[in-house]
Amino acid sequence: MNVKHKPKPDPNGHSPMAPLRRPDEQIVDNLTTAVLVLDGELRLLSLNPAAEALLDVSAKQVRGVKLRQLLPAAEIFETALLRVVDSGHPLTERDMQLALTGAPPIAVDCVITPVGEHALPGGLLVELLDLDRHKQISREEQLMSQNESARALVRGLAHEIRNPLGGLRGAAQLLERELGTEELKEYTRIIVHEADRLQALVDRLLGPRMLPSKRLINIHEVTERVRALIQAEAPGGIVVDRDYDPSIPELYADPELLIQATLNVAQNAVQAVADAGHILLRTRVHRQYTIGQRRHRLVARIDICDNGAGIREDLKDLIFYPMVTGRNDGTGLGLSIAQSLVNQHAGLIECHSEPGNTTFSILLPLVNVPGTAFDADAGAHA
Ligand SMILES: Nc1ncnc2c1ncn2[C@@H]1O[C@H](COP(=O)(O)OP(=O)(O)O)[C@@H](O)[C@H]1O
Ligand SMILES: [Mg+2]
């Protein structure tokens, strides 16, 4: 997404000095439907946070700006608006293509209602419901539950292998002591060596076992560590760029776990671009953003973009499953573990990939921290 400006993160939806929002304003602010008010000349008068997110603008910056300046290609939308200005009758357009600037068009349900005859001649109230985003949310939900059940299966299996493996190894060592010749001991050593190899695999399958130890961190602690790590191990030709939003509020998280998750994703990017590629680490913040079923007031996003060949078509729906790999020497555990580490923070990893342009987005809600004034988790259900 091409973010032209960065909406100010504002944990309470208003600065401490600003007057309290009126209840009706709070309702509109918390809607997941984008709501816009335009005058008869199609100038933008007001936008709610969902509309800011959809159009990727800040309400302050675009107040008074003509719609055509903001969305020059949105002819279908403009025609519909002008029809309502002319007729004075409300209009509903289902599954309308809305051409955005700097992003692919999206499908929306659009309701246009004429409002305020005297105060605002020709004024329009517009509701836009992002249908693609809704489809995406149900896809995400599916992704989360698939990953959870796959990981539970693998974890259960790994536990079952672990115990007899210990017994096997111990017995082989005892046997070795009883054996007379070096030749025979070679066999028990093979058993011990293979048991160790399997043990290492089982440990990887189980993933990091420590409980998260969360504290307030700056998300750039995570991205900067990952940048240093991949730059150290990447071949010289790879360029690692950053595009950070320094205004993202602190995040209540376990930095080590997030570094591990981000690193797993970034290492794939390094492998995907080979030795003359370009990797970008980007951070952004979203207001009123839904992850799975849950809507959060503020969500931080880390994007890891690369210009490699893209995810293989036959793997696209599978890459977050454990043991799915497209590489000869891959384990297929990197993304599955990363996803479960991010899930432990109530977040989600999504990905979009086409040849030359792959982006993995790590979405992390900025949640309540007990004992601080920071209360960013709306806890609402979308
Ligand atoms: N940035 C990327 N570009 C292309 N393919 C990717 C990318 N990230 C992941 N993949 C695909 O997803 C697969 C699974 O990744 P992962 O779970 O980390 O396991 P591994 O790296 O061991 O294969 C990779 O083997 C690769 O085919
Ligand atoms: Mg990997």
What does this structure look like?
By secondary structure, this protein is an alpha+beta fold. Helices cover about 40% and strands about 25% of the residues. Strand 3 and strand 4 form a beta hairpin. The two termini are about 20 Å apart. The structure holds adenosine-5'-diphosphate (ADP) and magnesium ion (MG). The site of adenosine-5'-diphosphate (ADP) has 23 residues, from helix 9 and helix 10.
The unique ligands bound to this protein are: adenosine-5'-diphosphate, magnesium ion
State the order of secondary-structure elements, H for helix, E for strand: HEEHHHHEEEHHEHEEHEEHEEE
Number of helices: 10
* Sheet with most strands: 6 strands, mixed
Count the strands? 13
Helical amount: 40-55%
Unreliable sequence segments: 1-17, 373-382
Shape: elongated
Strand content: 15-25%
Write a brief structural summary:
The chain is an alpha+beta fold. It is built from 10 helices and 13 strands. It has helices at residues 23-30, 49-55, 59-62, 67-70, 75-87, 131-178, 182-206, 219-233, 255-273, 334-343; strands at 34-38, 44-47, 91-98, 106-114, 124-130, 215-217, 239-243, 251-253, 278-291, 294-306, 348-354, 357-365, 380-381.
